[in-house]
């Protein structure tokens, strides 16, 4: 109970929320890092997944390779990148490690979504004279959107939790609260930092879930539920 009360005391102390080392500033850094890495990983994974899903070739190999990457710990990738010349360039090792971490769910879900599109609908669209590009953007992507959005949501939540690693190499974000707590031998601060990250991840999950339901066409909302 003493630890819990100490954690609550830390969380309710206004000084811990303001300033450069405060929660709000670290939260802004964490948000920026999360969405920057999510955007970069989406720019890499989604075009590949959509193209392979449309063509129906090479997708299984790409998905398997991406899933193999999940077995490699992000921290191990980060350490290896720090040992390369990239280690001289500030946050780039962290960004690259997080982008590689976010690619598998984006690639897998988008590819599976494209391949699960009803082929009768695809053939009907071709029969109407649609080109390949029109078929992708007017038929396949809208029908695959529930799974594509699910992949984005999974990647975003995973990034929120994993971006705390940035603090280990001097980066910003909520992880700095936890590492500062370790340096100060302050268990309440370490636990408070972990609680904040967990709550942030849950809020991110809820926000993307609501956004997914809101953006999905009416016929797809039952599938999302």
Structure, explained:
- It is built from 10 helices and no strands.
- The protein is mainly α and 225 residues long.
- It has one domain (2-224): MetI-like (MetI-like fold, Orthogonal Bundle).
- The longest helix is centred in the first third of the chain and has 33 residues, at 23-55.
- The protein is elongated, with a radius of gyration of 21 Å.
- The protein starts with a helix and ends with a helix.
- The mean pLDDT is 87.
- Main β-sheet: number of strands, strand sense, barrel status? none
CATH architecture classification name: Orthogonal Bundle
Spans of at least 5 consecutive residues whose pLDDT stays below 50 are none
Helix content: over 70%
Secondary structure: number of strands: 0
Order of helices and strands: HHHHHHHHHH
Question: Beta-sheet strand percentage?
Answer: under 5%
The domain tally reads 1
The gross shape turns out to be: elongated
Number of helices: 10
Organism: Streptomyces natalensis ATCC 27448
GO cellular component, one term: plasma membrane
GO biological process, one term: glycine betaine transport
Protein name: ABC transporter permease
């Amino acid at each position: 109970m003493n630890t819990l009360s100490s954690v609550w005391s830390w969380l309710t102390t206004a000084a811990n929320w303001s300033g450069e080392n405060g929660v709000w500033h670290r939260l802004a850094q964490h948000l920026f890092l999360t969405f920057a890495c999510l955007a970069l990983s989406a720019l890499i994974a989604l075009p590949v997944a959509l193209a392979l899903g449309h063509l129906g070739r090479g997708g299984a190999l790409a998905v398997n390779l991406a899933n193999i990457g999940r077995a490699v710990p992000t921290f191990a990738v980060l350490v290896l990148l720090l040992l390369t010349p990239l280690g001289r360039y500030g946050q780039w090792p962290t960004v690259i490690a997080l982008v590689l971490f976010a690619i598998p769910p984006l690639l897998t879900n988008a590819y599976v979504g494209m391949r699960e599109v009803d082929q009768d609908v695809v053939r009907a669209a071709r029969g109407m004279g649609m080109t390949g590009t029109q078929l992708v953007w007017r038929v396949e992507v809208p029908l695959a959107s529930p799974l594509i959005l699910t992949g984005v949501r999974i990647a975003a939540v995973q990034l929120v939790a994993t971006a705390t690693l940035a603090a280990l190499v001097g980066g910003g974000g909520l992880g700095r609260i936890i590492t500062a707590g370790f340096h100060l031998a302050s268990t309440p601060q370490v636990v408070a930092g972990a609680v904040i990250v967990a709550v942030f991840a849950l809020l991110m999950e809820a926000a993307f879930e609501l956004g997914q339901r809101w953006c999905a066409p009416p016929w797809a909302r039952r599938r999302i539920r």
